[in-house]
Every structure is written in structure tokens, then in C-alpha cells.
Amino acid sequence: MNPSLFAMLAVVFGGAATALQAPTNAKMMTAVGSPVNAAFVSFAIGTAALGILAVILQTRPDMAASRALPWYVWMGGLYGAIFVVAATWGVPKLGVATTITLMVAGQLMLSLVLDHFGAMGIPKQPLNLNRILGVGLVVAGVLLVRRS
């Protein structure tokens, strides 16, 4: 299989998983009393699954390389926690489609800024009208989904 096609399918699958994660965690929230508690349970299960996968795949981190990383690289889990808590809290109030659409809009808006400046060592991709219009269409989609 073409590596780019495989990567695109993996990302689509990952996106679909977030659509499942939001209502699943919202249901968990009703049992455990808060979106933070639900996110904690979600991360605990995810951590266990990743631990099992790491053992199966026999992956080993390069600790020397890890120590040399800039501080912001260690914040990925924090960003994920914010995402999961926000989705868990948002789904009962906004519905799955609106919550996920708003999240994608937020991701795209910040991604334009990150790309434009080449933040965090990524290749620069200057802001242009097509990229702004593309994100604008997603934001318009949020409004359409919300009005339904």
C-alpha cells in the first residue's frame, strides 16, 4: 500500500476515533461525576493500552535523545488532556457533531499560525488566501452544523 495513502487512512481512522471518544467519555462523565474524572479514566485506559502495545512491539525510548528535547515537546499529553476534557464536557451541551466540528475548526485555525511561522521546527507554509478560505469553509460548516 502507498505510504501516503496508509498515513491518510490512519489519520482518518484516528479522527473517527475522536468522534467515538467524545460521547464515550461524556457517558463516563455521568458515572464519575466530572469531565476531569472521565478524562482521567480515559487516559488511564489509553496508557495501559499503549504500555501493552509497547511491550508487544518491543519499542524502547532513547532516553538520551529524550533529555535533549525542548520543554514544549513534553506538553503533548497536556494538550491531549485539554482536548479530552473539552470534548467530554462539550458533547452533552452541544452534541457530537458540533463539538467535533468546533474542535476541528480550532485545530485548523491554530495550524495555519503554526505552519506560517514554522513553529516547533515544522516546515514553513506561508499563509495565503486559499488556506484562509479553506479554514473559513470549515468555520462556516460549524455554523451550518449548529443550525441544524
Description:
- This protein has 148 residues and is mainly alpha-helical.
- It contains six helices and no strands.
- The protein has helices spanning 3-32, 35-57, 63-67, 76-94, 96-117, 129-147.
- Helix 1 crosses helix 2 (35-57) and helix 2 crosses helix 4 (76-94).
- The longest helix has 30 residues, at 3-32.
- The protein is globular and about 45 Å long.
- The protein starts with a helix and ends with a helix.
- The mean pLDDT is 92.
- Helix content class: over 70%
Low-confidence stretches: none
How much strand content do the residues show? Answer: under 5%
Q: Please compute the radius of gyration using only Cα atoms.
A: 18 Å
Broad structural category: mainly alpha
Largest sheet: none
First and last CA, distance: 39 Å
Number of helices: 6
Query: What is the N-to-C succession of helices and strands?
Result: HHHHHH
Mean model confidence by pLDDT: 92
Query: Got a strand count?
Result: 0
Q: Which word captures the global form?
A: globular
Layout of secondary structure:
Elements: H1 3-32, H2 35-57, H3 63-67, H4 76-94, H5 96-117, H6 129-147
Helix pairs in contact: 1-2, 1-4, 1-5, 2-4, 4-5, 5-6
Keywords:
148 residues, mainly alpha, 6 helices, 80% helix, 0% strand, globular
